[in-house]
Amino acid sequence: MLGVRNVYIFVMLLAMIGGVSIFTTTLFYTSLVTISLGGVNIIWLSLFASTGLLFGDLVFYYFARAGSNCAPEKYATIIAGLIERIGRYSDKMMIFFIFLYSMTPLPSDAISIVLGVLSFPIRKMVLPLILGKFILIAVFLELALLGYSFI
């Protein structure tokens, strides 16, 4: 049996592994709803889940950042065009876009890969990612609990 204290660590590990791919995102959110129906604190559950999602996204960020230096020459023009296109936006606009994207149930590994290729500063990426996922998960779980109370 997991127990109430261990469930938060389990959710964090589940988020690191299961919440970063488009194929496992549905199972991750279904698992969160199931765990929340067990009576755990929604705020703590959202905090640990969003932190786990952030750690999973950081892995993709670092791989993309290191891999962009090793990209073949034929992709150099594509990467340069991407950097030029996104370079038109200010950092505040990029942070706002990261926050909005992280409030969707889509996996954030796609935006983490793009930001890693662009060498976007990680300190500007972490807070909007974790806040957006925290708000998404908290609202999602509250709505799931509200829907379950009607049954």
Key features of this structure:
single chain, 151 residues, mainly alpha, 7 helices, 0% strand
Determine the mean pLDDT: 87
The amount of helix comes to over 70%
The number of helices is 7
* SSE class: mainly alpha
* Unreliable residue stretches: none
Strand % is under 5%
* Biggest beta sheet attributes: none
| String of helices and strands | HHHHHHH
- Provide the domain count: 1
State the separation between the terminal residues, measured CA to CA.
26 Å
Tell the overall outline: elongated
> Rg to the nearest angstrom?
17 Å
Overall number of strands: 0
Secondary structure topology:
Elements: H1 4-18, H2 25-36, H3 42-69, H4 76-87, H5 91-102, H6 109-117, H7 122-149
Helix pairs in contact: 1-2, 1-3, 2-7, 3-6, 3-7, 5-7
Description:
The chain has helices at 4-18, 25-36, 42-69, 76-87, 91-102, 109-117, 122-149. The chain is mainly alpha-helical and 151 residues long. The chain has one domain (4-149). Helix 1 (4-18) packs parallel to helix 3 (42-69) and helix 2 crosses helix 7 (122-149). The protein starts with a helix and ends with a helix. The model has no long low-confidence stretch (mean pLDDT 87).
Outline of the structure:
By secondary structure, the chain is mainly alpha-helical. It has one domain (4-149).
